[in-house]
Design brief:
The protein is of the alpha/beta class. It is built from 22 helices and 22 strands.
């Protein structure tokens, strides 16, 4: 098995071993990647394939090629980059199972220990050194631009860092950027925001260019890609002519028939009540996925369904679950593992999963029914991809709040109005009946935007300088981070620990934890922190050494927490040595966590 094989041949072997049918777009992607590596022309391969197509098997094939068949011309490891932690959790479970299955079928050089999931709540490969790394865009970008998360406290405390170690591992890898369409902010396309550009997209394009310039191969995989993003890929200086797009339509053999229905409701309260009742009704016939745009709305739907079940005296008749980004890491992983244990095509009859956007992409689960509120085109398309994912019949209901009565629109009104208008036009032309194929055409909304300014060119040039200059160290980049907070986000993330959990309560009582509490933490953006600060829900701090200290322990501590709350970059403020504690603050202890519903504000 040591002979030099082409990637397509290796992919066929993987598919044969796992009982899969090879997919044409993946074969074409691997063929072009082979060509790019052989010619050393520094080109990235871009593949667009529908949800459920199996794009993540590209990374599995590359890992097998490197480890089993000695294809070190590709690199010494695979780094699979995802925009969201929740996608990584599910992928790590799936890939571990597939690696073990391949070992059982004679791929004797593979090992489950080669796999590492690295993000804020999972330190599986801190320096990105394992042979198959699954990580987030945040981690990759920080590591590439000289402030690796594993070293960041050293940088702020002692002005030292081994930042070239993870950079060396990145530059000796083949890097796969998955779900690339999720990096631009959904509100990027609004008229009020079009002049600002997008930090996340700019950072990711700069990373693609830097990795290509180093001679390492790059794959960009996505299900949906608005035309302005594709234009940006081909317009950035240093990337022009270096993107090879896989042509042609999908050969997806899965036959799906998803009927889509538009439902108008008066206001959000009505929508929540209607969705709860509809979910319960449909659960007697199949599995139901409910997707809301905010944690608070998802928690309310979950509570309404529970109340309906209690009123009926049938609490145990439905398997009801709730998942969102403000549930602690441990419990969120437990739900993902439960979803992963389903061997049939769809989740079982009677299962209702209420979710937010965390389930929009990269999570390989399928339901019979979808109930979702209106969202931007790419979100609607991704949510529909969770219905009848492996074939068959499904139904989707899209709920539209009439007029401007919605008090919590998290997406720009002009985009949602265009989506409603486009869906209405499609429904009118087709006699009222819509299919998932009709909805997949929603992306053309973005084609009507004239020359959107989505790249922050000065910021991109600064990243290029950080990467290329040996005179710029992590100490210099520290100064940049103190101003911009994060390479990808508009604000940075702060770790929260719920006081209601036994481990945190014990730590508060004893003053010290006997283990790391990272698996029961919640990453929260500054906007969430601000609401917690205003509501006086922060009651303590958790330090790097595992100490838990109550805020009421002294005025200095109150002042320090106030300083963190008032900072534009609270996570960076937490890393600095303060007057009261002689070490960085690792997290903030908060009250108001519900063990069923998570942290609801």
């Amino acid at each position: 098995m040591g002979q030099r094989l082409r990637l397509g041949e290796i992919y066929n072997k993987v598919c044969s071993a796992l009982g899969w049918q090879p997919r044409r777009l993946i074969m074409e992607t691997l063929k072009e990647l082979d060509n790019a590596v052989r010619s050393s022309d520094g080109k990235a391969v871009l593949v667009r394939a529908p949800t459920g197509y199996g794009k993540s098997t590209i990374s599995l094939t590359l890992y097998v090629a490197i480890k089993q068949f000695g294809r070190t011309d590709l690199g010494f490891r695979v780094i699979h980059v995802l925009p969201m932690r929740s996608i990584g959790d599910k992928m790590e479970i799936d890939m571990r199972g597939r690696i073990e299955a391949l070992i059982d079928r004679g791929f004797d050089k593979l090992s489950p220990n080669d796999l590492g999931l690295q993000h804020m709540g999972s330190p599986g490969s801190p320096y990105l050194a394992r042979r198959f790394v699954i990580t987030t865009g945040d981690t990759l970008i920080s590591s590439l631009y000289k402030v690796p998360p594993v070293e960041i406290r050293k940088i702020f405390l002692y002005n030292i860092s081994h930042y070239e170690i993870p950079r060396g591992f990145i530059y000796s890898s083949v890097v796969v950027f998955d779900e690339f369409h999720l990096y631009p902010r959904p509100y990027l396309w609004s008229a009020s925001d079009s002049e600002q550009g997008d930090k996340a997209l700019t950072s990711m394009l700069a990373a693609v260019k830097a990795i290509l310039d180093s001679g390492s191969p790059v794959v960009i995989a996505t299900a949906t890609l608005p035309k302005p993003v594709l234009d940006a890929l081909n317009s950035v200086q240093g990337l022009r002519g270096r993107i090879v797009e896989i042509p042609g339509s999908s050969d997806n053999p899965v036959s799906r028939d998803v009927r889509v229905y538009l439902e108008s409701v008066r206001d959000r309260d009505t929508m929540i009540a209607v969705i709860a009742e509809k979910a319960l009704e449909l659960s007697s016939k199949g599995s139901v996925l409910v997707v809301l745009n905010t944690v608070e709305s998802a928690a309310r739907v979950y509570s309404n369904i529970k109340d309906l079940l209690k009123a009926q005296g049938s609490v145990d008749s439905v398997d009801l679950m709730l998942i969102h980004g403000r549930i602690v890491e441990r419990d969120r992983k437990s739900i993902v593992e439960k979803l992963s244990r389903v061997s049939a095509n769809n989740q079982p009859v009677g299962r209702i999963l209420v979710s937010t956007q965390v389930l929009e992409a990269g999570v390989d689960v399928s339901f019979n029914y979808l109930l979702t509120e209106i969202a931007p085109p790419e979100s609607i398309i991704q949510r529909l991809g969770r219905v009848a994912r492996y074939g068959g019949y499904g139904e989707a209901y899209i709920y539209i709040i009439a007029g401007a009565s919605d008090p919590v629109p998290i997406y720009p009104a002009e985009i949602l109005e265009e989506v409603v208008k486009e869906l209405g036009a499609i429904a009118k032309s087709s006699g009222g009946a819509l299919s998932h194929r009709d909805v997949e055409g929603l992306l053309r909304i973005y084609d009507r935007i004239e020359n959107p300014n989505i790249i922050m060119r000065d910021y991109g040039r600064a990243l290029d300088a950080i990467d290329r200059s040996m005179d710029i160290s992590s100490i210099d980049v520290k100064g940049v981070l103190e101003k911009i907070c994060s390479f990808l986000r508009d604000s940075d993330l702060v770790r929260l620990l719920p006081a209601e959990l036994d481990e945190v309560a014990s730590c508060l009582e004893r003053g010290l934890s006997d283990r790391s509490l990272s698996d029961i933490s919640i990453p929260a953006e500054r906007s969430i922190l601000g609401r917690l600060c205003t509501g006086k829900r922060i009651i303590g701090i958790y330090t790097d050494s595992g100490k838990c200290i109550k805020i009421d322990a002294g005025k200095d501590l109150e002042d320090m927490v106030g300083k963190i709350c008032g900072s534009n970059c609270p996570s960076i403020e937490m890393m600095k040595t303060h007057k009261y504690v002689s070490e960085p603050v690792s997290g903030l202890i908060v009250k108001g966590y519900d063990k069923e519903k998570g942290l609801v504000l």
